[in-house]
Amino acid sequence: MGEITNWMDQIVKENPNVVTKVDYGKTYENRTISLLKIGSKSASAKKAIWMDCGIHAREWISPAFCQYFINQTYKTDPKMEQMMKNMDFYVTPVLNVDGYIYSWTDNSTRLWRKNRTPGPEGCECLGTDLNRNFDINWGTLGISFNCCSIVYPGKSAVSEAEAQAITDFVGNRTDEILCFLTIHSYGQMLLIPYGHPNVIAPNENELVHKHKKTTCNTDLCLAMKKVHGKQYTVGTSPDILYSFSGSSKDWARLQGIPFAFTFELRDDGTYGFELPEDQIQPASEEAYSGALHIITHVHDKEFIKPTSTAATVAAMLWTTMMAVFVTSTVIV
Ligand SMILES: [Zn+2]
Questions:
Q1: Partners of residue 142 on adjacent β-strands
Q2: What residues flank ion ligand 1 with Cβ within 5 A?
Q3: Where are the beta strands (DSSP E) in 133-218?
Q4: CATH number of domain containing 311
Q5: Over residues 294-314, mean pLDDT
Q6: Three-class SS of residue 184?
Q7: Which residues are CB-neighbours of 2 under 8 A, at least 6 positions away?
Q8: C-alpha span between 147 and 129 (Å, rounded)
Q9: What is the pLDDT of residue 322?
Q10: Fewer CB in a 10 Å sphere around the end CB: N or C, the chain?
């Protein structure tokens, strides 16, 4: 973790005009939660993209991807340069700092998922599942109130400092943030709102058409597949994974942020959370391609005035996005 903190400081030092570090919370063990704000200075009002990594401690590919993403943004290509004039990127490399550090302790802690807060009185176990702790249908679905469970949602909605930090930072910028991306592993999936089977986001069709049991061959899936041949699936959690409440993505969508995705990075279960080191680079490259595809769509919809109506352009870009139906019992 020290390495990641030093790396963030180094990036700021090398790119003072484009990158700033923002501390926006403290973990239970009193460590600082920081993000990098990346974007060119602009006279006009900007929009923003949110990305957080490392909400679940054991999903080590996630913080690695956030670092990869940041390195790509400030190196830039012409399209990224244009987008950085119109949008800032808020990227948190590690949200659950306490849990992440704990997962690095030894083999016995490697698969730790939650943060490190004490359970309620009378319970010996530590930790809350931060992706069950947000204020959206809190404590109703895909959770357990046994505090030893890996999906323990906490004592109440937003009881955890780490969830509170996102709630405050993003909640104060809902007019600015166009897109909320939260990065997990594993399963090779892109999840859209909502995690609750009875709630459907109003623009769901723009993100995905619900066709189960078919290969995802939309532009988004193809953009990821063309990098290293890996097939990703897109859909809501109840459709392609499992139902659950209290996730950051669902919360963000409920705040009115029009696009919200959970990325479940590599792999498909061969190595699971313990993805070999030599897959970090290819996994990051394909995920970057997917993220860039989404971000470009979001940017162009907001900033490029179409010759036809925005709706037509969106429909052209996002038609027939299909999801493969996958059953899974692994909690990611
Ligand atoms: Zn996860």
A1: none
A2: 56, 184, 332
A3: 177-185, 189-192
A4: 3.40.630.10
A5: 77
A6: strand
A7: none
A8: 10
A9: 35
A10: N
| Structural element, H or E, at residue 262 | strand 259-265
Interval between CA 19 and ligand 1 midpoint (Å): 27
Ligand 1 centroid, distance to 316 Cα (angstroms)? 32
Q: What is the pLDDT of residue 324?
A: 39
Q: Of how many residues is the chain composed?
A: 332
Of the candidates 160, 162, 264, 286, the residue annotated as catalytic is 264
Query: pLDDT tens digits, residue range 257-273?
Result: 999 999 999 999 999 99
Q: Residue 196's Cα: distance from chain center in Å?
A: 18
In a domain, 111, yes or no: no
Number of domains in the chain: 1
Within a domain: residue 11?
yes
Query: How confident is residue 208, by pLDDT bands cut at 50, 70 and 90?
Result: low
Measure the CA–CA gap between 48 and 203, rounded to whole angstroms. Answer: 19
For residue 184, report the distance from its CA to the centre of ligand 1, in Å: 4
Residues whose CB falls within 8 Å of the CB of residue 250, separated by 6 or more in sequence, listed in order? 134, 136, 137, 193, 194, 195, 196, 199, 260
The CA 308 to ligand 1 mean position distance, Å, reads: 39
264 is catalytic: yes
CA-to-CA separations, 152 to 98, 114, 116, 249, 330, in angstroms, rounded: 17, 9, 12, 18, 15
Q: What are phi and psi of 189, to 5 degrees?
A: -135, 155
Assigned domain for 256 exists: yes
Rounded mean pLDDT, 163-182: 98
